[in-house]
Amino acid sequence: MYMRLYIKQKVFSFKDQFTVKDEKENDAFYVEGKAFSVGNRLHVTDTSGEEVLYIEQKLFRISPEYDLFQNDDKVATVKKDFNLFANNYTILGPDWHIKGSITEHNYVIKENDQDIAHVSKKLLSWGDSYSIDIYDESHLGILLGIVIVIDCVNQKNN
After folding, report:
1. What is the 3-state secondary structure (H, E, C) of 7-60?
2. pTM for the full model?
3. For residue 125, what is the DSSP state?
């Protein structure tokens, strides 16, 4: 099954709240960030307030690294690769990899040779945004978390 979500560009950090919209521009998910002296944390909830994903920064790393949790189980780790000339990320847990331009919001998350999500920049009535096309809703929470982490880390580094 296919789902499209939208996130507004450059509107959040780990200290903010923001809304993920569906393709009709209705609220789909809420993200609340909290920055503590012991690391960054994000809670992703659906519109009824049920937690879909919890994201926690791993401390004392050379480059940014975040764990993603669903129902208190770690489901993935997203690591920014230490490289001065490229903006690459590694996904641990599921056997996924990223192809394309992360800084341009134009990349694909793949499992083997199959696309499972595509991120691309869009122009919407409520401002510059990027879309997340998710091709298998069973991966929805993890994919949304990966995209949010990548965008937050990129905003922090700009």
Report:
1. EECCCCCCCCEEEEEECCCCEEEEEEEEEECCEEEEEEEECCCCEEEEEEECCC
2. 0.86
3. T
Q: How many CA atoms lie within 13 A of 122 on its CB side?
A: 19
What is the residue-level pLDDT of the chain in tens, covering all 158 positions?
689 998 876 555 555 678 899 989 899 999 988 765 466 788 999 999 999 999 998 888 888 899 999 999 999 999 988 766 567 889 999 989 999 888 777 899 999 889 999 999 876 555 567 889 999 889 999 999 999 888 878 766 65
Tokens of residue 21, six digits:
């919209």
Closest CA to 124 of 28, 12, 22, 29: 22
Locate the DSSP E strands across 61-113.
Answer: 65-70, 73-80, 89-92, 96-101, 106-111
**What would the two tokens of residue 131 be?**
């879309």
Cross-strand bridge partners of residue 120:
106, 131
Helix (H) or strand (E) holding 88: none
Q: What dihedral do alpha carbons 83, 62, 9, 50 form, nearest 10°?
A: 140
